[in-house]
Amino acid sequence: MSSAPDPRTTTATGSDVRVRFSPSPTGTPHVGLIRTALFNWGFARHHGGKLIFRIEDTDANRDSQESYDQLIDALTWLGIDWDEGVEVGGPHGPYRQSERHDVYRDVLAQLVEKGLVYESFSTAEEIDARNEANGRAKQQGYDNYDRDLTDEQKAAFRAEGRQPALRLKVPDEDITYVDLVRGEVTFPAGSFTDFVIVRPNGIPLYTFVNPVDDALMGVTHVLRGEDLMPSTPRQIVLYRALIEAGVTSFIPRFGHMPLVLGDGNKKLSKRDPRADLFLQREKGFVREGLLNYLSLLGWSIAADRDVFTLDEFVAAFDIADVNPNPARFDQKKAESINGDHIRLLDADEFALRLVPYLQASGALGESPTDEQLALLKAAAPLVKERMQLLGEAGGMLGFLFTDELEYEEEAVTKLSDDAPAVLAASAEALRALDSFDTESIQAALSAALIDGLGLKPRVAYASPRVAISGRRVSPPLFESMELLGKERTIARLEALKERLSA
Questions:
Q1: For 141, what's the count of Cα atoms within 13 Å in the CB-facing half-sphere?
Q2: Where are the alpha helices (DSSP H) in 245-384?
Q3: 270 among the known binding-site residues?
Q4: 110: how many CB neighbours lie within 10 A of its CB?
Q5: Which of 127, 137, 388, 475 has the lowest CB atom count within 10 Å?
Q6: Which alpha helices (DSSP H) does 182-330 contain, by range?
């Protein structure tokens, strides 16, 4: 029996660190997957090591080119780059499992030659029958029966038309390793029996190809979700066999990150809108804000600090500081942090990032004019402090780019009965202005509505705000009027007055 971690476990640090991100191209990238990529990227960059991006595409029924393209799109948008792998190449390619069958065959041949794997002909029904006859629970599964088959028995099975699976021999001892997140973990002897690494049809299983790829690519640290933790002892046993066969010289270190929860105590479902990376982007997350929030799902830079830059994340991140307890995805907190990062953008960058969202809302066309871009640059500072998501841009600024204003129904119906008079007084005051700038506009409207009509500011400016923006809530009123210009502003005041008077 052994209860100590294998001394052949890597001690790699610094530039020798090699981690990998190895998703399957199925479905849309979700936030849990991206957090895994982020933590691997952060760990590699913190230590000055390498990140490998490998694709596990051996499930032809589920894998798709569309999903692969989405993975590339997601990582590119987020700025998570990689040093080796698909699209960039490297010394250990190919980096798609579907292109590595010859590699797996060669490794299998080495394991067979060393007597570390064996042919298994037992069917599920035969295993169940033997377990029942021997007083073993069916849940215990395979009983290592085929380990000692003679050549004659194997020949007889083949004569029946049976094709064997290949199983790895599992030592009868405790398997212990030190998890980078959870500390020392021991799987007692007998936790699992000899397991299949190649199906009877010759197709190798994930339990085999994943560690083999890691071994051949020199991966030193395997950082992944805790749902994969039960496979760790099998992988360690396989690594020992790979070392004995001369395929590799060390066992990587493992770290299992906590689950990301949705509502209640349930894992965040891939079908939950919060989990959809592209839906979050569509809503208006900036990459800095989303990555900041995802990094907080199991880790923190300090007890009293939630907002930080990517450079600060890289400088501080270590997988050993990840909390093993489940992390809950909080949409409101994510959006709040995103708003903080929007405010960290410089003015020109902020305006530039608003363009696709204004295009999506219809406020801007496919090729905005220089005049429109100049207007956007001038208007952007008015909403920067108020915005949590870039997707709010259409509602906040769209009124500046159209002369066919649409009113929010509630905004119109909640105006006071004296709104037409207020709008008439506003238009008259503004028409008299020679200089149409923010200070002049404010002074004119204050004199006409507050001093002249005796209105409180909240009431005085409600109907002019709806007139120019179509909404009860808008960017600062006087600045917005300056940006619209005198003619457009007065036209909007008169248009709403006519609508209310009709």
A1: 8
A2: 277-283, 287-295, 310-316, 331-344, 347-361, 370-383
A3: yes
A4: 16
A5: 137
A6: 206-216, 232-244, 277-283, 287-295, 310-316
Q: Is 232 a residue whose pLDDT tops 80? A: yes
- What CA–CA distance (Å, rounded) separates 77 from 261? 25
pLDDT tens per residue, range 17-31: 999 999 999 889 999
Q: 155-189 burial, b for 16+ CB within 10 Å, e for fewer?
A: eebeeeeeebbbbbbbeeebbbbebbbbeebebee
Neighbour tally for 241: CB within 10 Å: 22
Given a contact cutoff of 8 angstroms between Cβ atoms, the answer to whether 95 and 53 are in contact is yes
* Nearest partner of 199 among 207, 187, 189, 191, judged by Cα: 207
Contact yes or no for 410/356 (Cβ under 8 A): no
Q: What is the spatial distance between Cα 165 and Cα 126, in angstroms, rounded to a whole number?
A: 14
169 an active-site residue? no
Sequence-distant (6+) residues with CB within 8 A of 357 are 284, 390, 391, 393, 394
pLDDT tens-digit profile of 309-324? Answer: 999 999 999 999 999 9
**183, β-bridge pairs:** 179
499 pLDDT higher than 90 = yes
**Dihedral angle at the C-alpha atoms of 68, 70, 74, 79, nearest 10 degrees?**
60
Question: Can you give the pTM of this predicted structure?
Answer: 0.92
